[in-house]
Amino acid sequence: MGTRGWDWLGALRGEAETLRPFNWLLGLVLVAVTMAMAPSLVADAFPVIENDCSDDTITYYFDNSGSGGAWASWQKTAARGGFADWSGVLDWDGGTVVNSLVEVGGPGGGAVNVELDTSPGGNPGTLGYAECTGGATISLNPTLITQSLWMEHWARHEMGHLLGLEHTGNDDSQDGSVETMATCTSVDTVSPGLSQDDSGNITHKKGDLDPETIHANAGWEEGTTFWGYSNLAYVNLSTTNPADGARALEWRPVVPNGLIYQTMNYAAAGGFTIDARTNHRKLSSSPTSGLVTLQILVRQVTYASNPQCSYPTGKDQNDRIYVQESWTTVGVQTAAPTTQWAMLTESTPYTISSLWDAADIRVRVKSNVAYTSGSGMATIATDTTRARDQGF
Ligand SMILES: [Zn+2]
Predict the structure, then answer these.
(1) How far is the CA of 156 from the centre of ligand 1 (A)?
(2) pLDDT digits (tens, 9 = 90+) for 362-385
């Protein structure tokens, strides 16, 4: 992993205080219960903290009376940008996942107090801090956070806690970028925008669908972001005739079995059962042969022991060790597409081992559908493509 400086230690101490006392204590209780069943369970990333303080609607105000003084214009602009990223997460039907996140002029009505604090949570080495007691507070350290991108990142991170998210690891499972909810990291180890794993986490926690969606941007309502492609000749974000919401993805392989995919880290996944579903169709009514295939693949993730960055299990999510490098296909379902939207469901339950610290879960749709006239591969459309969390 990358170099960690003294601010990392500060961040660690501060993050350990995060959401204290209300949610953190609840989290400890839940961890104690689940550890009895699954000793390796790491309680992070997906909601172990069930009683977040937001109730899905958050108002906040910039408090100028913190020990770090009054907010400068650039600091507020950056923090607003970080907060707003959560409002940009769209559900399968185009609706927002976080229903309301609005700035107000001052306290009252439970508005979150966002302050500059030179000692967040009582520690001058801490980057930021969030708690739910009373109204709720986000504290950001202006001594350590001296650049706009850093302020945006840490504001986004602390708001993630108030929305009920725990920490995730350093490396996003889809693109390797630094995750929004990573901790135990240096102040400048940030990425612009909300990370894919954490976008998926908030969708899992607050999205409309039941069973819950594991993947981010499942309905392409946020564009093509968070999706990967292999061996495609054509990809088009279509706003005409989606299965649901406002958008669908149209794509045509270069060769048989060109595909789209998305990988999602699922921490504390042991014992959970997953399956997958996609909507699919073909665009042209010309005769075709071949199948669309929906697959679920999993990969075991193991965390290293690291007392300096550990969670209640004594393991550090930021240090991912893949003891099983290769992917295993655990579910497959095929269908011959027509010009009508149809669901393709891989409903054979797959249960993630309770011995695993976490799992990377990849959903994949591939096509070998070709025109029987011999004029090449056919264009496929997909919508609301996701692995689903069927729970215990
Ligand atoms: Zn944190």
Answers:
(1) 10
(2) 999 999 999 999 999 999 999 999
**Cα angle 14-315-137, degrees, rounded to a multiple of 5:** 25
From ligand 1's centre to the CA of 183, what distance in Å? 6
Per-position DSSP letters for 105-129, written without gaps between them? SSS-TT-EEEEE-SSGGG-TT-SEE
Ligand 1 center–CA 109 separation, angstroms: 25
Superfamily of domain 212-389: Galactose-binding domain-like (2.60.120.260)
CA–centroid distance for 296 within its chain: 18
**Which of 293, 269, 278 minimizes the C-alpha distance to 351?**
269
CA 308 to centroid of ligand 1, rounded, Å: 15
Please give the model's pTM, rounded to 2 decimal places.
0.84
Q: Which stretches of 25-121 are assigned E, i.e. beta strand?
A: 57-63, 100-103, 112-116
Cα(160) to centroid(ligand 1), Å: 8
Distance 22 CA to ligand 1 centre (A): 15
From ligand 1's centre to the CA of 130, what distance in Å?
A: 8
Give domain 6-206's CATH architecture: 3-Layer(aba) Sandwich (3.40)
Residue 309 has a pLDDT of 67
| Residue type (1 letter), 129 | Y
All structural domains of the chain with their residue ranges: 6-206, 212-389
User: What percentage of the chain has pLDDT greater than the value 90?
Assistant: 58
d(CA 219, ligand 1 centre) in Å: 29
Ligand 1 centroid – CA 250 distance (Å) = 38
